[in-house]
Write a structure and sequence with these properties.
single chain, alpha+beta, eleven-stranded mixed sheet
């Protein structure tokens, strides 16, 4: 039976994603103003803003730089230079590159941090904490401590905005508060459901020869970390097939379990046995997954906003966003090895319906996951 050493789970990284899209963000929502900020980031509404891929001396080799380079569909040799003209900034805006700001977060856990991704139509917030057990613990005990931590008080500060809430709700409420800095009386708001992303950063995990069995300990524990005490979903519907070679296959060495409420990632074998995109550290993989879901969430939010409360600007952004999401499906998916199936599995039916309405055609993936769960 698949199991994890009950004494050696030492670190979980937990990120909460909340996204808010609004009809009117004042000057920030004017394309020319936003492009000017992309060309020359400067403080706005008390927020220090920068481009999301410029982080430190080794920014070119960071997970952020690689991620946004993939978003902009540029090769490694081309790189990702900052926009130096209105035309270059307009291309980045079409590709969905936001401005990045930092807030402060006071919450249970190790090194709480708050990131804010600002778009001309809204804000996506990521609230992250680490939970540590130097002597090791079980995943069941880790889940219980996570439940207690996310119900505890948390305070977020972003620019001149302050939010007092719980860890579970701090990301969406921070996203709303940031939008309010630019327009205190929004005409229409679209919120995406809060999504919890949990990665087992450090643990003693056995090498699995097969995918986790239904209702077995790994299936049960990964489900609880993703979705709490709800009844477990069928493994074939929740585990995400991975890109191996030239197709999607089940990979017991690299487990991602995704539901509409949350996601759990667990590297269940040595790096040499994992798919090419999973041979990174668990921290880097967590970072890539959170950025991916944040990017898809923001794209889906503006598509839904344009359907519910259309304006000239948000309809343009919605078309660009719908085409970006469509390119992750097919008929010739963009970099299937890099993006994987996570964007497809993350999108809720309401967002898929809105994207298809904007595109005027159904989303038809060229690469399908395996139909039979082993």
């Amino acid at each position: 039976m698949n199991s994890i050493d009950p004494t050696l789970v030492r670190r979980l990284r937990v990120t909460y994603l909340g996204t808010c899209a609004q009809r009117d963000l004042g000057d920030l929502g004017v394309p020319s103003s936003y492009r000017a900020l992309l060309c020359a980031p400067r403080p706005a509404a008390g927020l220090e803003l920068t481009l999301p891929f410029l982080l430190g001396k080794n920014a070119k080799w960071s997970a952020e730089h690689e991620f946004w380079r993939e978003v902009c569909e540029r090769t490694e040799s081309q790189g990702l230079p900052p926009p130096d003209s209105d035309r270059a900034a307009a291309r980045m805006l079409r590709m969905g590159v936001p401005l990045r700001g930092h807030g402060t977060l006071s919450a249970p856990g190790h090194k709480p941090r708050l990131e804010l991704y600002l778009y001309p139509f809204g804000c996506a917030a990521l609230a992250t904490v680490d939970l540590l057990w130097p002597q090791g613990t079980t995943l069941t005990a880790a889940f219980e401590q996570l439940t207690a931590a996310e119900d505890a008080e948390a305070t977020a500060n972003a620019g001149t905005a302050s939010v007092d809430t719980t860890l579970r709700q701090v990301a969406p409420e921070a996203a709303v508060a940031v939008c309010a800095l630019f327009n205190a009386t929004p005409k229409h708001t679209v919120m995406t459901p809060t999504h919890r992303i949990v990665t087992v950063i450090d643990a003693a995990v056995p090498e699995l020869a097969t995918m986790p069995e239904a209702s077995g300990p790994i299936h049960r524990d990964m489900h609880r970390l993703a979705a709490g005490d709800d009844p477990p979903e069928e493994p074939r519907l929740a585990f995400v097939a991975r890109w191996v070679g030239r197709s999607f296959r089940w990979s017991p060495a690299d487990l991602v379990y995704m539901l509409d409420r949350g996601t759990t990632a667990l590297a269940a074998g040595p790096a040499r046995q994992r798919p090419a995109d999973a041979k990174r550290t668990t921290s880097t993989r967590h970072r890539n997954l959170t950025l991916t879901l944040m990017h898809v969430s923001a794209s889906a939010a503006v598509v839904r906003l344009s359907r519910e409360s259309p304006t000239m600007f948000n309809q343009d952004w919605a078309r660009d966003s719908a085409h970006r999401i469509g390119r992750l499906y097919g008929p010739k998916p963009v970099a299937a090895r890099y993006w994987g199936l996570e964007p497809r599995q993350f999108l809720d039916p309401l967002s898929v319906e809105a994207v298809e309405a904007v595109l005027g055609q159904p989303l038809q993936p060229a690469q399908l996951p395996p139909q039979t769960y082993p």
